[in-house]
Amino acid sequence: MSNETTSGPSVPAPSLPWPAIGVVLVLASLLLIPLGIGNAFVTHIFVTICLMAALSSAWNLVGGFAGQLSLGHATFYGIGAYTAVILVNLGITPWIGMFAGAGIAAIVGMAISYPCFRLKGPFFSLASIAFLEVFRVLTLHFSDFTGGATGKMIPLKLGWTWMVFRERWPSLLIIFGMLCAVLVVVWAVRRSRLGFYLIATRERESAAKAAGVKTVQVRLVAVAISSALCAMLGTFHAMYLTFIEPSAMFSLTFSIQIAMFALIGGLGTVSGPLLGAVLLVPLTEWARASFGASALGLHGFVYGVVLLLAVLFMPNGIIGLLQKFRRAPHHELDEDEQTTQTDSIKAPAQATTPPSPDREGIGRDVMRVQNLNKRFGGLHVTKNVNFTLREGEVLGLIGPNGAGKTTLFNMLSGFLTPNEGSVTVRGPDGGYHTPVNPADFAALGVGRTFQIVQPFAAMTVEENIMVGAFYRHHDEHDAREAARQTAWRMGLGPLLQDEARGLTIGGLKRLEVARVMAMEPRILLLDEVMAGINQTDVRRAIDLMLSIRDSGVSIIAIEHVMQAVMSLSDRVLVLAAGEVIAEGDPHEVVRDPHVIEAYLGKEFANAHR
Ligand SMILES: Nc1ncnc2c1ncn2[C@@H]1O[C@H](COP(=O)(O)OP(=O)(O)OP(=O)(O)O)[C@@H](O)[C@H]1O
């Protein structure tokens, strides 16, 4: 079993007060310093900082939270600029044009991102650049509307209605307000179910799907919000510049700059892009002013050097570096502490799911598997698999390596479509349904774990479990509370604020179960949750599974640890070479000569005589 974790950017806990105080102080100085100095050039620099910080924060929703590294975000900025300028020329105020541009950009963003989500890493970035170029060429082509290569002037109508001013301070007020609004949107997204789902999708798409996340849908929502915000900022900038032309509005360099402030400040964090812009824009503007025409393009060189240094020494950006200093040492549980903790968690555990000595009888069928066949090319992996799972039952699924157990689980949770056969699940309404994808299975109450643990590495233990809890609790406070209760029940209480990437394999296994339990499933598919954990943890896991079973959940458990299989299972199903070779009472099944021959071996049989 590999302890596989990704190393995505760090995600700070959103509720800590010090970053909020820092952000408020930075914002206050962005407004008060230029207003206090009253110099046009200084005000211009602060307008640029606010604009870049806002654009980068909006980009961060897609590039940071969703992990889709777009290098073509100027497309939406350009759409916002052109829409507003065309409308201004028709006599419509940019305050309206701004929203028209936002709507168009959101639709365009979703339309071009949907097919590109299949592309990973640099391929998505390249596709985003290609679309940027397409829009630049389109703007050149439709010159009747856009002015073509010569660009378009904004009619010189001064005043708040037209967003054009003789002085710079009104523009500063507008862009400062827009920056605050963008930050509030990003902050709200980060705290919401959408934010958790985006980060979960970025970290582990399969695990996110298993938690009921509609991964394409949440990324499309993020793209729509991000594109709309960029377009609104594009409108402002067009009015500020009073002139637009295609190569400036749909510029690759500008797109890279937008992404870079977030990369340097802290990808996937609320305050990172703001910090990046505050530190970098004055530096480059100073370089531009100091060296002027003698070193044209010097700002690009400055950006390059800073980016190189950031990648080398601060892979998680400035925010990641700051976090490192304040992060508490990792909390590893020792044996005594674990015992105490297990004792101490009994109370909340019993409060939610009392382990019943008079376990309710096994009820009606909750899952029916009929004639399941799966082929990978010429390899026939599962052959005519039939079985049923009943309410409150624990079904042990055993068999040698390569027998097709995980493949079967993938079909029971919608991750694979069978070539023949069907899986029907009894829904909360009492009717039987045939789900087809992970979201459908989750909606019917089927939760699963993965053989290779799939933590959302950059999230804390609490946040990992919250991704599951959000399935039932849409409000952040409710989801956090449910996650905490589940964590204590699973023995993860003292580790709530630890990052998942720091857990031991035993901890990661428990986290995997905790996340799915937080979804309050009716059917639980456990894939080797006891592999690679010590004897004490195995005993604890057995107790935990019994308490889960007693709460009325039906369980199918793939397990090689026979101690667990024997003490947990009401029934055992043995799969060998894709076929069910035995099914029934565990004590009878382990005596079956076919099972001994195919899986258990003679030594096991002798030991259990
Ligand atoms: N996506 C795939 N493409 C091709 N072959 C696959 C794929 N997934 C699984 N297999 C093959 O199907 C067979 C069954 O694999 P599966 O992982 O389901 O077995 P398993 O019983 O879960 O084994 P283990 O106990 O080792 O996890 C193996 O031969 C495996 O190589």
From TrEMBL:
Transmembrane parts of this sequence: 16-33, 99-117, 123-148, 169-189, 220-244, 256-281, 301-322
Signal sequence coordinates: none
CDD domains: ABC_Mj1267_LivG_branched, TM_PBP1_LivM_like
UniProt name for this protein: Amino acid/amide ABC transporter membrane protein 2 (HAAT family) /amino acid/amide ABC transporter ATP-binding protein 1 (HAAT family)
Spans annotated as Disordered: 332-362
Location (main, coarse): membrane
Membrane topology of the entry: Multi-pass membrane protein
